[in-house]
């Protein structure tokens, strides 16, 4: 019973809205014009049923083509999403490997820098000391984090002369 009251209320409300909207002359003229056009179209297609069937078939074909295109696009997007899901772990692994390589390179550069600083600070570097062995006593005492010229009581050219004085020509 409540459904009947609901439908009745909806229909009465729609009828009242229609009547109120028809008070406007432009709306009323537009409704009359469209109603006449609808009636003439219905009459035309009632006599030409084959044309109506053709139009309906064309619209159905358009709808089917649209559905097929959307379906193909959806499957294409689905395939690309699956490819991305498969590639994500590989890309992550590659990124981690690259990060590790950069960290190793950074550590090697820091070690080399410390070796160069230690070699520059030595008054008489021995020919057996290399930049990569890190085994000199002065390199173990150096814990500096930046590459700078060593401080000396004389001018800066003295430190490079003392490094070069260790070489024998």
Automatic annotation (TrEMBL):
Keywords: Membrane, Transmembrane, Transmembrane helix
Residue ranges, annotated region (Disordered): 120-169
Transmembrane residue ranges: 6-23
Top-level taxon: Bacteria
Comp. bias (Low complexity): 126-169
Name of the protein this chain belongs to: Gas vesicle protein
Species assigned in the record: Planomicrobium soli
